[in-house]
Design goal:
The protein is mainly α. The chain is built from 10 helices and 2 strands.
């Protein structure tokens, strides 16, 4: 495939180059898994220094569009979800967002998703939610490794939001669940895990009944428990 001709303005060269390359990736000029031209080739093609090209690649990597691999180069990624998770984590650590703000945002979105799922989910959707709840219970009862508990815990929330059929909600809520779980994991003992499971069961039961308001309320109660864990740790005032 012939490389496109890119005309660059002479100010903020690395930002301009990153923007043009981003357009090419989004338009599928380079497909998922494909390696972009090397720094040297790009520098020669565009008449730029390798440091400018390198800075442009860093911008693309920060956006989750490429994965820079040692000895390979910049490889087009599947999507930007990982970058979104990392960005949320960075914003929390830098103090741009608070854990309370993140929890409130997640509560608002997930309560709406649960209500929509209660009204519109299919039999298959509800079966997936039930299966994920049972796996979560099994992981707690058999005292599986915390990493495995986290995985099946996240699966419950994923299956709930997936049932809305809205990929935007999936991409917004899933990183919030991942970060919240990572933060609260060290704060939760086995007894707390069982209490957490019971809140998940209440969400499931309300969805199974087709009770939109009950589903919404069950999510709010679940988030109250998460807030209590964060408050106990001093992360929430």
């Amino acid at each position: 495939m012939a490389e496109p001709i890119i005309q660059l303005k002479r100010n903020s060269l690395h930002g301009e180059l990153a923007s043009r390359l981003e357009d090419l990736i989004v338009s599928a000029h380079w497909g998922v898994g494909q390696t972009l031209p090397s720094e040297r080739d790009m520098a020669e093609q565009f008449g730029l220094s390798r440091s400018v090209v390198r800075d442009a690649m860093r911008i693309l990597a920060a956006k989750g569009l490429v994965n820079i691999r040692q000895g390979v180069g910049a490889v087009v990624t599947q999507d930007g979800r990982l970058a979104f998770v990392e960005l949320l984590d960075l914003l929390l650590r830098r103090g741009s967002y608070t854990h309370q703000q993140l929890l409130h945002a997640r509560e608002f979105l997930e309560a709406s998703a649960a209500a929509a799922t209660a009204l519109n989910s299919t039999v298959a959707d509800r079966r997936r939610i039930q299966d994920s709840l049972e796996r979560y219970r099994e992981a707690i009862v058999t005292r599986q490794h915390p990493d495995q508990v986290d995985i099946v815990h996240a699966e419950f929330h994923t299956s709930l939001v997936q049932a809305t059929g809205n990929p935007v909600l999936m991409d917004l809520i899933s990183p919030m669940v991942e970060i919240s779980t990572a933060v609260t994991r060290p704060l939760i003992g086995h007894r707390d895990q069982w209490d957490d499971y019971l809140y998940h069961q209440a969400i499931h039961d309300a969805i199974a009944r087709g009770d939109a308001e009950g589903s919404r309320l069950a999510v709010h109660r679940h988030m109250e428990l998460s807030a209590a864990h964060l408050m106990r740790s001093g992360l929430l005032s």
